[in-house]
Amino acid sequence: MEVIQQRLNWPLEGMIFDIEQHVFWPPEWGERPADSAEAVDICKREFLRVPKLIPINGHRYIPEQPCKAGNPVFSVYQTDIIVYGEDLQDYFQHEFGEKSYEQINLDTVKTVRFWSNLCS
Question: In DSSP terms, which residues pair with 24 in a beta bridge?
Answer without folding.
Answer: none
